[in-house]
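EI: anyone free to look at a 240-residue chain?
SC: sure, send it
EI:
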Amino acid sequence: MVGKELVGRTALVTGASRGIGAAVARRLATAGARLVLVARTEQALRTLAAELGGDAIVVTCDMREPDSATLVRRRLDAAGVACPDILVNNAGAFVLAPAHETSVELFRETLEVNLTAPFGLVHAFLPAMRARRTGHVVTIGSIADRAAFPGNAAYAASKYGLRALHEVVRGETRGTGIRATLVSPGPVDTELWDPIDPDSRDGFTPRAQMLEPAAVADAVHFAVTVSVEINVDELRLSRR
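SC: here you go
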């Protein structure tokens, strides 16, 4: 049962226009949080903001761009939000190709979205969290942040790096009042799979057997609402 545990708190969710990001935004809004919705697709964000009601802030931003974190911070400053209470780094790009068929440009772009952009937001907001001695950095990882699969050269490299970033942030914020959580789900049934069609590929999890985005939202909600005396370092999710 979701209560109103997050009333008075602001949660920033990247990749909020669909899939896991939208599910997380809905769950945190139900718990009373004010949402900052970040993604590339403005109309989808505005539709979600209207659904959530309240005073959700929409930030249209391409996380591949080097100045994405600066743009997000300026938009929040303009809205009178100095720093989110909860930062959910969710936006991601999924690339499936053998290493020798993955261009350097595509590899670099995947790291920009999956690793550099999350670091940019941590860099932008962690100082304010440290100054007020409260805040929560939630990182959406993947089974690919510990298991390397063929065809995942760019994706696995970015997710392994993202897990390392989480562990560094957790180590550096321990005892400061700031919490850091890594949520690493197995395959999740989102639009990212549409062009891949895993049901017709050997060795892939059929979509009917994947986790639902709401399951990841459940995990995030748990991590950010558990007793303040507890840090949920890591949650790894799989279908029962």
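EI: The chain has one domain: 10-187+213-232.
SC: 👍
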